Amino acid sequence: MQKPLVLDVGSHELQIGIAGEEEPRIIIPTLIGVKKSAMQMRMVQDLINQSGLNLNKEIYFGEDALNRFIGLDIKRPLEASNIRNEDHLKLLVEHALFQLNLKKPLNRHVLVTCPTLATERFIMFFMNLFLSELGALGICFSSQPYLSFLANDQQITGLLVELGHSQIQLVAILKGHIIRSDDYSYGGKDVDAYFRQLIAPKISLNEPINGVAPAIFIEEMKANMCEIYPGLNLLEIKDDLNKVQKMNKPHVLPNKETLILGLERYLANEILFRSELVGKEKSIPDMIYECVEKCDKDIRAPLYQNIFIAGGLAKIPNMAERIEKELDYFLPHTIEPKVRIILDNPSISTWVGGSKLAINDKFEQVVLKATKFLAEDEIGINSVMYPTFEKLKIFTPPIHTFLSPIPEIYKSKEVKLILKFVEKSNILKFRDLADYFGKGLSDIISIFMKLLAEGRIHGEIVAEKGEFHKHLT
Predict the structure, then answer these.
(1) Residue 197 to residue 185: CA distance in whole angstroms
(2) Are 278 and 269 in contact (CB under 8 A)?
């Protein structure tokens, strides 16, 4: 039997790959772009012509959609487990499968990650999609923070804090079993919105710069510039001009102009610790404290001493240290909190946990088989309890699971850029690409041959011209 497929679909990113591998093969933003109506297109035609956008398709996905935002309506089909548009989400999943060169019937099991409080619509959507339409052999669900905890491979007791794009999820785990879970509609999207508000006086957020969409260059700016202030007194010193000037740092924009950011670099993430800045009730330390204090008294200390953070926000500089300081400030002196990042790349920790779980010898016990699902006339979330390790109390003790690297073709930076070039251009010259990457001509042609063989691009190599010609559909 083929190895299971692991799908982590979040509000911000969709990650997909093969169980037993150390990272997802495909990561794309969870969004699609739908071509504007004819009337809307006439209104922005001049801008489209100036930017040289290629808009020969009705729908674009991920970054390709963001880069064409002038002529598209950008849609996010998912918010936590609330599906906004089933058709758009289905198209996005099918696009990811196409990028993996997987065709239906899939003929393999699928593990889908989900929030701790997944909606019935979310569960039923993926059951129907994979079992009824895509030909999967079976499906299993597991909560995102639980999987992040499994990615750890060491602890069986602790508190996992999943710092996601649209929500923060906490699970307290005792000897491998979830004993409490909390979630809050608060996360990276709030940081993004506040950062935009902070930098709006310094830069236009409505126009591309050198063809780069605002959403992309703002995300890059935030990732490269923003940190968490290590102390507890940022709001007290924000009016101290001398201290604020020391925070200044230059950022080069796509048009080569330099933007200086100072206090904004720290204030954007400060809302995670001073939630009143954006009208939220609880900060991350408040959430942790409330979750642990509602557990039995005799296990609180082990939970405080084994706090693990995961998700995209976990990799922000100083995150673990700041949470530790905040907790240490109001916890009894007899308890010394310890906060650790779950993996070197915490943004893929949920997927990695799923990759390990799906090759565990107990995985078959949890999978809902397609034959059983399709045999039901009217199946509902109550008639077939959607399967998870947590609900069935099947515990997998921490073991050092060996994960294999993904095929080179999926992690090469050259490959990722070539895929973008193919998306934007109908003809590519191998010599130009070889010069651009500093590679040999044969290396570039070899990459194209592999991409063609795997079905990730469609076209032909015209050897006599030294070019790749894309098939137009």
Answers:
(1) 20
(2) no
Confidence (pTM): 0.84
CB-based contact 263:354 (threshold 8 Å): no
- Decide: helix, strand or coil at residue 27: strand
Tens digit of each residue's pLDDT (9 = 90 or more) over 2-16: 999 999 999 999 999
Residue 390: which residues within 8 A CB-CB, separation 6 or more?
Answer: 142, 143, 146, 177, 178
For 155-183+283-343, which CATH superfamily applies? ATPase, nucleotide binding domain (3.30.420.40)
Query: Which residue type does 294 have?
Result: K
Residues 172-200 pLDDT 10s:
999 888 899 999 999 999 999 999 999 99
Classify domain 188-271 by CATH number: 3.90.640.10
241-296 pLDDT per residue, tens? 788 888 999 998 888 899 999 999 999 999 999 999 998 889 999 999 999 999 99
What CATH number does the domain located at 5-149+347-375 have? 3.30.420.40
Domain ranges of the chain: 5-149+347-375, 155-183+283-343, 188-271, 408-470
Question: What percent of the chain clears pLDDT 70, i.e. is strictly above it?
Answer: 93
Residue 257, CB-side half-sphere exposure with 13 Å CA sphere: 7
**What's the CATH number for 408-470?**
1.10.10.10
